[in-house]
Amino acid sequence: MATVQSILSRKGQQVVSISAGESVLAAASLMNQRAIGSLLVLEGERVIGIFTERDVLRRVVVTGRDPASTKVSEVMTTPVATCRPVTTLAECKAFMTEKRFRHLPVVEGQRLLGIVTIGDLMAFEVGEHESTIEYLNSYIFGPR
């Protein structure tokens, strides 16, 4: 069964992060620059929170906070749900669906190894289905 490590091996371990003391405006700008939906909030190499588009809407916009003066630490999601490299993709998908998360940091002990998204899981699944279809096509109709 495929694990989170399968995804990290393909996509790499790069994670975009921000410190807790940065402003929401800086965080939102970074997310826009990188075209991503979340930032991990790090203290050293330890994950202390996650800041997402949902946090911007629910904890900043709707409450009327000033993004320039609000710190990420005031509105980030904490504690952060994580997974390990050996976690199966089926477990991740079930957990993310149940909890309505789209981003799941991958850690081993306290060390951050990467992040998987619901999009990563779906792309991996599509790739697996395409491989199966090619195999079956070849089996039924012979090699092309």
Blueprint of the fold:
Elements: H1 4-11, E1 17-18, H2 24-34, E2 38-43, E3 46-52, H3 53-61, H4 72-75, H5 89-99, E4 103-108, E5 111-117, H6 118-141
Parallel strand pairs: 1-2
Antiparallel strand pairs: 2-3, 4-5
What this model shows, in words?
The protein is α+β, with helices and mostly antiparallel strands. The chain has one domain (4-141): CBS-domain, CATH 3.10.580. The chain has 6 helices and 5 strands; from the N terminus they run αβαββαααββα. The protein has helices at 4-11, 24-34, 53-61, 72-75, 89-99, 118-141; strands at 17-18, 38-43, 46-52, 103-108, 111-117. The strands form 2 sheets. A 3-stranded mixed β-sheet has the order 1-2-3. It has a two-stranded antiparallel ribbon with strand order 4-5.
Largest sheet: 3 strands, mixed
Order of helices and strands: HEHEEHHHEEH
CATH level-two architecture: Roll
How many domain units? 1
| Estimated radius of gyration | 18 Å
**Count of distinct strands:** 5
- Percent of residues in β-strands: 15-25%
Stretches where pLDDT is under 50 for at least 5 consecutive residues are: none
**Average pLDDT over all residues:** 91
Q: Structural class, from helix and strand content?
A: alpha+beta
Helical content (DSSP H or I, runs of 4+): 40-55%
CATH topology name: CBS-domain
Q: Which CATH class applies here?
A: Alpha Beta
What is the straight-line distance between the termini? 29 Å
